[in-house]
């Protein structure tokens, strides 16, 4: 319940930020009354008579210079010829085109060089700022005429013109960066996540899961970087096509890697065919959807929707951890489906960060469980190895030659309870109560005896066949109790190894 409440609160916060984020104060051209004319091949730079038969009245959404050279005229209505604080005004041009602009009949600037074909065109910036002389502006209606072409694109956009407006002077990329800069924080988190899980995937137990999370973070970081690139770099419009393709590919990569992570976690077998199906559906949707926002949205949502179905079924089957995944994916998918205008916006990447945070926490718990299971298996292995060694000793006891008091004696290792170091000698304590002083050091004795003897202290070697219990003191040292009731000290340094050896 707490996870659902937290995620709902985060979603509400994101929506609040989206609603109350300050927008750039600009005045757009009249988007309802636009006249579009093809440029004359005889003299393409000559402003046409917009009442000629070849010209058409349209809306701003119909302005499309892709693969052609067109003239456009419209109006711009200004209440003041300065900004709110008396700033000079600038003309902001955002779109896939090279263009030349006229304001009230006079040339005010160009963005690239329009042309009849790719050979004669010089691509303009995707987001450009023109600075007309301030006396060109008039209060009330202003005539805007521009020549535009776009011959260097690799894809045909449904809406190639994003904005033509006047506002307080400033760089267009700076305005975009102000919109995207909060996302830079999440970009840093995505990059750190990719590095961290990449390293842990190489070094730790959950290699496949960690490397997969690293890949998820990488796709999220690349998608976000491609998105904010528009605010970081003033690029020419042909780059915009590649940027949109990159966003779509990275968005699909993010959705598919999340789906693979979910499938491999909650499907016992047979994940290959579902992954092929989801990948194919995502590719088809990205290909056939009309706009790039729709392409990117569907390329990501289809794999995540499939993941939601898998986790929903796993929750129904009461698989461990499935319900948490289901809730996290449900919040993410529902937020995008209910508020599609947030997609590929700053708020969207906060949602991505929230989903990744959930995956990180889940992976941390999974890794902790795997470490515990590995320790249990190691303890079982140690106990089994010790039991086998003890069995071998009972069947074929090791004998050592003990030199003491000028004579040599053969002693069976299974008759030795423990050995005690004594100033360069070893005091051997046998089960019959006898004590023999052997002329070797305790370290040398350790090499002679079989592995059922363990070093519990710098002064003691003990036969594990005679160990009854091991107790740890509050100081970190321990006390070993043998079957005859005798006790031996266990040093703080060797305590972990002794506990591991005894299982």
Major sheet summary line: 6 strands, antiparallel
Structural class: alpha+beta
Give start-end ranges of low-pLDDT stretches. Answer: 1-24
N-to-C order of helices and strands: HEEEEEEEEEEHHHHHHHEEEEEHEEEEEH
Counting DSSP E segments of at least 2 residues, the number of strands comes to: 20
Identify the overall geometry.
rod-shaped
Ends: how far apart?
Answer: 39 Å
What does this structure look like?
This protein has 503 residues and is α+β, with helices and mostly antiparallel strands. The chain has helices spanning 2-20, 172-203, 207-232, 237-266, 272-288, 292-316, 322-338, 346-395, 442-448, 495-502; strands at 27-28, 34-38, 56-58, 69-78, 89-95, 98-103, 106-111, 127-130, 140-149, 161-168, 399-404, 407-412, 416-422, 425-430, 435-438, 453-457, 460-463, 467-472, 478-482, 487-490. The strands form five sheets. A six-stranded antiparallel beta sheet has the order 3-2-4-9-6-7, with no helix packed on it. Strands 15-14-13-17-16 form a five-stranded antiparallel beta sheet. The longest helix has 50 residues, at 346-395. It is rod-shaped and about 125 Å long. The two termini are 39 Å apart. 36% of the residues are buried. The model is unreliable at 1-24 (pLDDT under 50).
């Amino acid at each position: 319940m707490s996870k659902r409440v937290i995620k709902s609160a985060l979603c509400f916060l994101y929506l609040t930020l989206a609603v109350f984020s300050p927008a750039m104060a600009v005045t757009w051209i009249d988007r309802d009354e636009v006249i579009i004319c093809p440029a004359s091949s005889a003299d393409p730079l000559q402003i046409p008579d917009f009442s000629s038969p070849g010209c058409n009245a349209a809306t701003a959404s119909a302005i499309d210079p892709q693969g052609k050279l067109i003239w456009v005229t419209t109006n711009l209505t200004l209440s003041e010829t300065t900004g709110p604080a008396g700033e000079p005004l600038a003309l902001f041009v955002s779109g896939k085109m090279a263009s030349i602009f006229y304001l009230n009949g006079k040339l005010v600037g160009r963005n690239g060089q329009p042309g009849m074909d790719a050979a004669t065109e010089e691509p303009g910036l995707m987001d450009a700022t023109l600075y007309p002389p301030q006396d060109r502006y008039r209060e009330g209606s202003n005539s805007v005429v521009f020549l535009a072409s776009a011959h260097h694109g690799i894809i045909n956009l449904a809406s190639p013109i994003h904005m033509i407006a006047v506002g307080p002077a400033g760089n267009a990329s700076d305005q975009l960066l102000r919109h995207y800069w909060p996302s830079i924080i999440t970009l840093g988190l995505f990059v750190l996540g990719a590095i961290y899980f990449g390293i842990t995937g190489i070094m730790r137990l959950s290699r496949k899961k960690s490397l997969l999370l690293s890949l998820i973070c990488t796709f999220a970081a690349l998608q976000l970087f491609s998105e904010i690139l528009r605010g970081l770099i003033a690029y020419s419009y042909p780059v915009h096509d590649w940027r949109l393709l990159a966003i779509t590919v990275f968005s699909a990569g993010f959705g598919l890697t999340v789906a693979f992570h979910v499938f491999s976690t909650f499907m016992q077998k047979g994940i290959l065919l579902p992954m092929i199906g989801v990948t194919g559906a995502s590719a088809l949707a990205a290909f056939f959807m009309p706009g790039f926002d729709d392409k990117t949205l569907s390329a990501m949502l289809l794999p995540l929707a499939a993941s939601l179905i898998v986790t929903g079924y796993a929750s129904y089957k009461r698989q461990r951890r499935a319900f948490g995944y289901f809730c996290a994916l449900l919040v993410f998918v529902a937020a995008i489906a209910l508020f599609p205008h947030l997609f590929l916006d700053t708020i969207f990447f906060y949602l991505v960060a929230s989903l990744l945070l959930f995956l990180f926490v889940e992976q941390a718990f999974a890794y902790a469980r795997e470490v515990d299971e590995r320790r249990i298996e190691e303890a079982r292995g140690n106990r089994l190895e010790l039991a086998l060694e003890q069995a071998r000793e009972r069947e074929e006891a090791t004998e050592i030659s003990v030199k003491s008091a000028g004579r040599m004696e053969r002693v069976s290792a299974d008759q030795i309870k423990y050995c005690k170091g004594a100033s360069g000698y070893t005091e051997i304590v046998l089960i019959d109560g006898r004590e023999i002083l052997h002329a070797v050091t305790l370290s040398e004795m350790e090499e002679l005896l079989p592995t059922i003897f363990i070093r519990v202290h710098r002064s003691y070697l003990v036969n594990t066949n005679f160990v009854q219990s091991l107790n740890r003191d509050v100081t970190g040292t321990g006390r070993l109790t043998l079957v005859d009731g005798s006790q031996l000290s266990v040093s703080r340094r060797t305590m972990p190894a002794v506990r591991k050896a005894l299982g």
